[in-house]
Design a protein that fits this description.
Helix content: 25-40%
Number of helices: 9
Radius of gyration: 21 Å
Number of domains: 1
Strand content: 15-25%
Strand order of the largest sheet: 5-8-3-1-4-10-11-12
Structural class: alpha+beta
Number of strands: 12
Length: 251
């Protein structure tokens, strides 16, 4: 782990947002609670059947040994279903002004975009340490593709542990190309749950074009008092037909 984790999280303004700011937490839900019903819900048996139809020789024998091992498949699926998947947008020059993110995840511009930085030391000591029961399983960017699970199985390592890990990464980090505008990264825990963040992890808060004055006042006060955040910005319309930009809130 060589760098801190720097990301955006688009949110509606509601009691869960307020709770996360006051308690300085982020929450990683189970795969079945993600908004896309196809996300982390691939039919594993169907994938194995397609891979078997394309394999031959030792590779065919290897793949069939897993497909016919119903205990392995059931245990693997149960393990995946209990994972905690925290999704975020990777920092880049376009995502903050991506209208679909504000419309889909920030209550049609009434919500916020939170900018976080998790220090390297925090990640190593509080998410990756071996003694932690619910430590980090994987943290990576999402791969957008229509397929790839069959190819993953066909190219899988003959080592059982490595095979299960490669398949898990594919399962947890692949989405349909339709979602590519999200520029998504994921922090996956071994179990669903909350992560307590250090003070000042919340670096900036950006408010949408339609954010109410009362909401702005509430969130800025809570973020200052409980999360140590002192940088706030409000979206305003730009000169282009569909352009918007951000100006700092100084009061």
């Amino acid at each position: 782990m060589s760098d801190s984790l720097h990301f955006y999280k688009f949110r509606s303004i509601n009691k869960w947002l307020i709770e996360s700011i006051v308690q300085r937490t982020i929450f990683a839900p189970r795969p079945e609670d993600l908004n896309d019903p196809f996300d982390c819900q691939v039919d594993l048996e169907s994938v194995f059947e397609r891979a078997i139809s394309l394999a031959s020789g030792e590779k065919l024998h290897f793949i069939k040994s897993f497909y016919e091992n119903k205990v392995f498949i059931e245990n693997w699926k149960n393990e995946m279903s209990s994972k905690g998947v925290y999704s975020f947008s990777l920092i880049n020059s376009q995502i903050l002004s991506e209208p679909l993110m504000w419309s889909h995840y920030a209550d049609e511009h009434r919500g916020v975009c939170l900018e976080y930085i998790l220090p390297k030391e925090f990640i190593l000591e509080n998410l990756m340490a071996q003694h932690l029961e619910n430590r980090l399983f994987v943290c990576n960017s999402v791969d957008y593709q229509d397929s790839g699970f069959v190819e993953c199985i066909l190219k899988a390592s003959p080592d059982l542990e490595r095979f299960a890990e490669d398949l898990a990464r594919k399962y947890l980090l692949t989405k349909s190309p339709s979602w590519h505008y999200e520029k998504e990264g994921r922090l996956v825990l071994r179990q669903s749950g909350s992560i307590k963040l250090p003070n000042e992890s919340l670096r900036r808060v950006y408010f949408g074009l339609r954010s109410a004055k009362s909401d702005i006042e509430l969130i800025t006060e809570l973020a200052r008092s409980y999360s140590g955040c002192n940088s706030f910005y409000k979206a305003i319309k730009g000169k282009g037909d569909f352009e918007f930009k951000f100006e700092e809130i100084t009061a």
